[in-house]
Each structure stands twice: as C-alpha cells, then as structure tokens.
Amino acid sequence: MAVPAVRSFLQVAATEEVASPLRVVQIEGLAILKIIKHCKEFSPALVTGQLLGLDVGTVLEVTNCFPFPIREEDEENEAEGANYQLEMMKCLREVNVDNNTVGWYQSTLLGSFQTVELIETFMNYQENIRRCVCIIYDPSRSSQGVLALKALKLSDSFMDLYRNHNFTGEKLREKNLSWVDIFEEIPIKVSNSALVSAFMTELEADTPVTQCDYDRLQLSTNPFMERNMEFLIECMDDLSMEQQKFQFYYRSLSRQQAQQQAWLQKRRAENAARKTAGEEPLPEEDPSNPIFKPVPEPSRLDSFLITNQVSNYCNQINGVAGQNFSRLYLMKALHEN
Amino acid sequence: MAASEHTVLQFTPSSASLSARVHPLVIFNICDCYVRRPDQAERVIGTLLGSVSSDGTVEIRNSYAVPHNESSDQVALDIEYHHNMLASHQKVNPKEVIVGWYSTGLGVTGGSALIHEFYSREVPNPVHLTVDTGFRNGQGTIKAYVSFILSLGDRHLAAQFQEIPLDLFDIVKTRTIDKLPNDLEGMEASMERLLALIDDVYKYVDNVVDGHVDPDNSIGRFLSETVSTLPKLSPSALDKLVNNSLQDNLLLLYLSSITRTQLSLAEKLNTAAQIL
Where does the record place the MPN domain (chain A) (predicted)? Predict the structure, then answer.
C-alpha cells in the first residue's frame, strides 16, 4: 500500500499560492437593495460607493456596501472623502460587518460606463487588493423591468499591458488582445441569510396578482430606444474621429518613410561620388535630421473603450427590440379575442 | 371654594393620525444586523432614518445598528457611535433624518422606554419599530409604536406605546436565485405568469356562469372595467399600428447589426495594418 508523500511544512509554505480564477460574484440581497436605492435616489446623477465582503476561493462574496457622498471638484475634499471612508469602515466594524473592501459600485446611464477613469480606478484598487470587482447598476434600464446589474473585472492581460503603457499595434497583436478582452463580465448570484428568506416569504403578498413583473410588459419603450440611439450615434462619431487619427498617423508614417528613402538614396549617391573623389563616406544615418524623428503612434485605448461602449449600446438595443417583438405579438393576440 | 384638583387621567393622543411606511431595505438591514450581533447580546438596537411627509406619514428608508449594553435594569447606548454614523449618513443623503429607532424581539420592554426617551430628545415623537426575529408568534411580526404621555395632573405617569398602522413599500423579491434572468428569460416568465392569471380569471368566470360559485358584483364590475380599457380600434388600424412598430424595431435591429459589423471591420483594419 503506497503511503502518500507527506510534504514538510517548509515545502508547503514555499509553494506559491495560485490565485484561483474568479468565477462567481455572490451578492447579498441587502447589498443589492442598498445599491438600487442609492442609485435610484440620485439618478440621473452618477454615484459611487464601496463594496465590502469576503474573498473565498472562486467566489467573491459581497455582504454589504456603503455609498460615497457626492464630491465637488475641490482639493480639500479629498482628505474629507478618505476620512468618511475610514469612519464608515470603523463604525461598520463595530457591528461585525465584514470590513474587507472588495471593490466598488457605480451607477451608469444607459451603459456608457467604459471610460478611462474606470480603468484607472481599477488599477488603483488592484494595487491594494488582490481581487476586486466593479458592479455597474443601470437605473434607467431597470425601469424596463430588468435588473440591470453587472459585475466587471479587468482581464489580466489587459492590466499587464496597461501597466507598461504599451498600446502599440505590435504589442496588441502579440498578446492577441482585442477590444472584447478588456473587461470580463462575471456572473452574479444572489444569496440571502435564512432569516431574511423567512421574512420575505412572510411579507410576500399572498395573491399572485401583485407578483407579476408588470414592468416588463410595458409597451412604451420608445424613449429608451431613442436615447440609446442618440448615444450610439455620438459614439460612432467619436469612433470615426479615432479612425481618422489612425489614418493620419499611417499617412504621415508612410510619408516619412518615403522621405527617409529619398534622403538615403541621396546620401548613397553622395557617398559614391565621394568614394570616387577619394574622400570619407558620410554616415548613412543622420539622427539630427527631423525626418528621422519617430512619429508617435496614437494610443488605441480610447478606440477600444469607445468600441466597447458601442457594442454595449448595440446589445441593449437588440435586447429591447427582441422584447418589443414579443410584446407586440402578445398585444395582437389579446386583441384578436 | 378651592379649585378641586382634577384627577382626570389625561390622555393626549397625537392630533394627526400617524402611520408609517417601511422600505424593505430596512427589514433586510435589521435582519442582517441581528444575524451579526455579538454573542452576548440578545437583541439589536438601532436608529431609523427617513422623512416625515406633510400628512403625518413617516417614511422609514434607512437604518443602522448602534452597539448597546443591556442588563436587567440598565441600558447603555453608544451615543457617540450613533452621532458618528448619523453624520456619515447625512453626508451622503442630507434629507434623511432620524425618525425613530428599532429593536428586535416582540413587544416593548421596560428598557425600551428609556431608549425611547433618549430618542425623543433627538426627534419629536419618534417611531419605535419592533421586528420579531424570533418568530415567536409563528410568524415574523413587524410593528411600529409611538409613545404617548399619560399624565395625571402634573405628574408624568407613564409612556404608553400605541401601535400605529404600518405599511410596507413595494417589496423587491430577491430570494436566492442562481442567475439573474436575462431579457428573454424574464420576458418568458412574465408572460407565463400573465397567462396563468388570465386562466384563473377564465375559470372564475366559467364557474360563475355555470353557477358553481356565487357571483361577486365587485369582481364582475372590476373585470368589465378592465376589459373596457382595451382601446377600441378597428382591426385594420390595429394591424397598421402593430406593423409600424414591428418595422421600427426591425430597423433598429438592422442598424445595430450593421454597427457591429463595422466595429469588427474597424478592429481588423486597426490592428492588422502592417507597416513596412
């Protein structure tokens, strides 16, 4: 009978812990309600808040959260904001709430949340916490009857690239990174303590009439679609501007190369002439010549983000249009009776 | 003739009929705090935040727990913590003010009167909410109380807690669900439920017509009202409406698909372009 090899303590301590990938975000009903309430109260202004919870294996549990006050763009308020955070965490610690920051949440308007600030906030958080997640809540979409809650995380490869500020086409092709790979969406699971479930079953209205989610059967989605289209069009404008930037860059690059070639030819001809005259050949490169100055390549980050936003809008439009179809057919069937 | 002392028990109810509405978040919060309470504490006490509307309805929107120590005859509340949390909450939402306090457990105890007095110093006429987490009556009872002063002449006799009607805001059902339903699944679920409702109504009407069930006039009137709210459109007009909306939606779908194709094209162009 083979005896399993016993690893010494030193060996176990020496093996590096491999972080298991994050698969599910488990949120408590309490945290969701708080997020919804905070975002709805201040809609259409965009608000943020902090998430607290535990990091357990492949599951990131979010057990509580608290909102951030809306800050004006003041220099002095930064210290105030930090103070507020510390104060809240201290107070919550006293009532035995999990004191771990696991991320933050923010509200958004029709899904226009992919900005550079989001990425920067992610990087800031990532320095301190091993795993953090950002929850996005869209109150305008929730009025359509869908709980528009998403958990986002930056993909690792993107984070490496961003840290090195390398966004050239070469690097991206190397890593095979496209705009889909920036954000990773993680599925959300809702859980509740037994006490809360007991109360909920208690407080549920007995008649099934009020249980139907009537919001979903609303026919008037036109304003929502209109706004979506408007945002989409704006984003397409931004995207085309980015495209133009790239075109300009390529054109100037090729022009510069043509100039370089021409200059090189001249030099070579000169050198040939000098050789016949018996003089020293001039160097073939001249770094002081302005045509050799490398043209800076525009960062692709913006275009990636815009592409993400556009695809988001498209997805939303698709979803709502699909729902509209079902609703219209339902209405038609009802009228035929 | 000396004016005789009136030994009339004066009972001064509040002038406006007070009622309270509770946001389900508060219930969740209280349950969560109860589950997390320190081992030696039997119940949890905390502050209620919200607003008072003009007709006297108290809307309870938020809450936070306050650590306290309770022994048989004494209750000590961490007042500094209470003020700190209040300041923090007001930074986020200055409209939420203290409207009362809550405690878990059924009924109102002696210690509660002291705490209620403390809160009445902060706010005139605070509301006391009790949430029975022990399910002593076989169900979770949530009650709200307001205190009235019973005075005899000049002497303050006792504070009587009188229950006020309590209303719960729209309950958002978030029981344990594995996955938040995406658009189409949710749609399907809603339509199924609607279908079930309509079936029930059909069955009821059939039963009444057959004479199995006594007809209820109010239900009948309600049904006829509902049916009459369907707009009276000629079939051709309805068809035109439906077709127009269908075409609009198809157009939007087409546009978004084109946009997506454009995106993938643009991406190929951007990253695949080789220099030299």
Answer: 25-158
